[in-house]
């Protein structure tokens, strides 16, 4: 065992770079030399074979073998044997439904929180690491049995967080307004808006904002606050029920 270790990335591809290019050094220092193979979960996209090929190519270029869970005849056993887990982006509802359908919620929680294996998520894979997928940007194209997710951290994240465009004539809600609507409901946890290029590193009880862009933090009933890379977010790891 060991303390939980999470690398929660806002997006897989940053403008001008290739797949996971903007965070590859973070991935290498996160996984280190002990991890030899990564278990990839491609459930968020329909074409799992193509997705696994893309991920395998990237991780092999970084020196890691990659097994895709969709190629395993026993997904639960694959999680039990894994040295590290990476859940990729795509549609969050499709991803969460597949995690439930394959009985993986408790198994992944156990491997990460009790056994201490590294967990990496990007986009939808970051969404499912949190309390719930209530603050995803995706359309509910399928119906998971619950919106409750893995709960590896006691708050929610909004990946690909977008600031309001002052020049835009678009009259729909801004991302900030949508998160405020979420917080109008009782007992809703903090939401960390991760801009593209940002990621959160969690090691035990320490959480640090990394990457090239900042984040915006939303606490229920409070004004949102702006945070630069390097910010210590460890206080978010205290159970959010205490913060409401």
Automatic annotation (TrEMBL):
Principal localization reads: cytoplasm
- GO MF term list: dipeptidase activity; serine-type peptidase activity
Q: Which InterPro entries match?
A: Class_I_gatase-like (IPR029062), Peptidase_S51 (IPR005320)
- Subcellular locations according to the entry: Cytoplasm
Lineage, highest ranks first: Eukaryota, Metazoa, Chordata, Craniata, Vertebrata
EC number(s) on file:
3.4.13.21
GO CC annotations, alphabetized: cytoplasm
Pfam families per the UniProt record, alphabetical: Peptidase_S51
GO biological process terms, alphabetically, are:
proteolysis
- What biological function has been recorded for the protein in this entry? Hydrolyzes dipeptides containing N-terminal aspartate residues.
User: What name goes with this protein?
Assistant: dipeptidase E
The record's keywords, sorted A to Z, are: Cytoplasm, Dipeptidase, Hydrolase, Protease, Serine protease
EC class (word)? hydrolase
> What organism does the record attribute this protein to?
Nyctiprogne leucopyga
What reaction gets catalysed by this protein? Dipeptidase E catalyzes the hydrolysis of dipeptides Asp-|-Xaa. It does not act on peptides with N-terminal Glu, Asn or Gln, nor does it cleave isoaspartyl peptides
What family, per the record? Belongs to the peptidase S51 family.
Spell out the SUPFAM superfamilies in the cross-references: Class I glutamine amidotransferase-like
């Amino acid at each position: 065992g060991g303390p939980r270790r999470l690398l929660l990335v806002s997006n897989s591809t940053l403008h001008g770079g290739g797949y996971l290019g903007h965070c590859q050094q973070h991935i290498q220092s996160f996984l280190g030399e002990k991890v030899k193979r990564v278990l990839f979960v491609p459930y968020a996209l329909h074409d799992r074979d193509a997705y696994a090929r893309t991920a395998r190519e990237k991780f092999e270029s970084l020196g890691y073998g990659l097994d895709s869970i969709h190629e395993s005849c026993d997904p639960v056993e694959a999680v039990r044997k894994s040295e590290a887990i990476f859940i990729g982006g795509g549609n969050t509802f499709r991803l969460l439904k597949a995690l439930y359908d394959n009985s993986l919620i408790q198994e992944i929680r156990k491997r990460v929180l009790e056994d201490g294996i590294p967990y990496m998520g990007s986009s939808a894979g970051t969404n499912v690491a949190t309390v719930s997928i209530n603050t995803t940007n995706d359309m509910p194209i399928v119906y998971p049995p619950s919106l409750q997710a893995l709960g590896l951290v006691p708050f929610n994240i909004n990946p690909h967080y977008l600031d309001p465009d002052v020049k835009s004539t678009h009259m729909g809600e801004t991302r900030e307004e949508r998160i405020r609507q979420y917080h109008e409901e009782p007992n809703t946890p903090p939401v960390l808006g991760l801009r593209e290029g940002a990621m959160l590193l969690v090691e035990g009880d320490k959480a640090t904002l990394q990457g090239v862009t900042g984040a915006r933090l939303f606490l229920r009933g409070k004004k949102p606050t702006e945070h630069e890379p390097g910010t210590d977010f460890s206080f978010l790891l205290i159970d959010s029920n205490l913060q409401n």
